[in-house]
Amino acid sequence: MKYDFDKVVDRRGTGAIKWDVKENELPMWVADMDFEAAPAIKEALAKRVEHGIFGYADCPDSWYQAYIDFYTEEHGLAISKDSLLFCLGVVPTLSSSVRALTEVGDEVVVMPPVYNIFYNSIRNSHRVIVEVPLRKEGDRYSMDYEGLEKAFASSKCKLCFFCNPGNPVARIWEKEEIARLIDIASRNGVIILSDEIHGEITRPGHPYVPFLSVPGSEKVGYAAVSPTKCFNLAGIHTSAIIIPNESVRAKVNRQINTDEVAEPNVFSCVAAEAALSKGREWLRQMREYVFANRDYAESYINSHIKGLHALPGDATYLMWIDCRKISDKSATFLKFLRENTGLFLNDGGVYGKTGDGFIRMNLATTRANVEDGLRRLEEGVRLFLLDR
Ligand SMILES: Cc1ncc(COP(=O)(O)O)c(C=O)c1O
Question: Which stretches of the chain score pLDDT less than 50?
Fold first, then answer.
């Protein structure tokens, strides 16, 4: 490997949310990576800092071209310059979209277990959350199409947030599955917003399926994409919205401007462009490293830690672990785990009721941390069961 993902970078005292923990604690929760950004990104940012003037910024043509080239070359997806909007983040896109495309009291569909902030984006604008939980058969989650038919049929239902690939369920949705979602949405006049922030974090050889690559998609929906998750740039605040439909684009564009999230800071476009155009080899190697961590953790948990079951996954660096055999209340177990071993994970219950009894572990860190985390998890389960 050309890039060193084993390199330890101390993140304590850098204002990192994830690492604002006690000295003995190991944080494997919030979804960012403990890897240094690709050299090309650091160089581009350093050059921008060296320039020394930090006035108001705009997106240059090269920013649009970087997205167009990336999606054409990596996914065979043609996107036009006109369809691209800059937004400071995917969460701002979700929240502004709710305000742009629905009225107070309208219904927005989510499919839990799913990224918890989907709920906030709907609730904060006083819209109604309608849950159509994913179905779990064995280790595999799938969409509940009958449930979606019913939910979308409501005259108040206007929008659906689709997490593609799924966080925390780690699923790459297949073309046929997305096609069924599109079919139900188009028959009921519901708009789909596909959140593709985890799109590039997939098992080597298993690319995700961009929503907009599925026939009929551009009539019913659009996608929020960003290099922040896969290149570890979340604190830079940069993303793009791809909206082929002109009238939807006009509404969303108006709203992101009203909400003041449509203008980049001086680093937003520089970092995104460098990542998309010069970071691809780094991205490929990161995937290999992270999925080796994933396979190692899955096999360790399933063979060493009785009472826990790690679900397999081809997307995200977030492992979804069933702990219902040791406790129905995953929050209780996690509190115990943190207090007794220092390991800090996410509680599945925050991703919707059907996530209760599960925990989420972030594996985008050094192998040494993964090994340490797994030992703490094993010890935590042992102590928890003794304590009962
Ligand atoms: C599905 C999903 N969407 C959006 C975000 C955050 O997006 P942003 O940082 O661009 O606002 C996350 C972060 O974990 C996520 O998992």
Answer: none
Nearest 10 degrees: CA dihedral of 279, 280, 285, 291?
Answer: 110
Beta carbon of 93 within 6 Å of any ligand 1 atom:
no
Ligand 1 near 34 CB (within 6 A): no
User: What pLDDT is recorded for position 1?
Assistant: 74
Rounded to 10°, the helix 90-101/246-258 angle is 110
113 lines ligand 1 (CB under 6 A): no
Domains of the chain: 26-37+280-387 (3.90.1150.10), 41-278 (3.40.640.10)
Q: Hey, CA dihedral for 271, 276, 278, 284, is it positive or negative?
A: positive
Residue with tokens 């994933």: 294
Q: Is the CB of 90 under 6 A from ligand 1?
A: yes
Which residues are paired to 362 by β-bridges?
318
Query: Residue 63 Cα, ligand 1 centroid: separation in angstroms?
Result: 21
- DSSP structure class, residue 2: -
For residue 306, the tally of other CB atoms under 10 A from its CB is 14
In short, whether 255's Cβ falls inside 6 Å of ligand 1 is no
Find the helix or strand (DSSP H, E) in which 361 lies.
Answer: strand 358-362
Burial 151-189 (b: 16+ CB within 10 A, else e): bbeeeebbbbbbbbbbbbbbbbbeeebbeebbebbbebe
Cα torsion 138, 143, 145, 148: sign = positive
Q: How does pLDDT run across 235-247, given as a tens digit for each residue?
A: 999 999 999 999 9
> Does residue 163's CB lie within 6 angstroms of at least one atom of ligand 1?
yes
Rounded to the nearest whole angstrom, what is the distance from the C-alpha of residue 92 to the centroid of ligand 1? 9
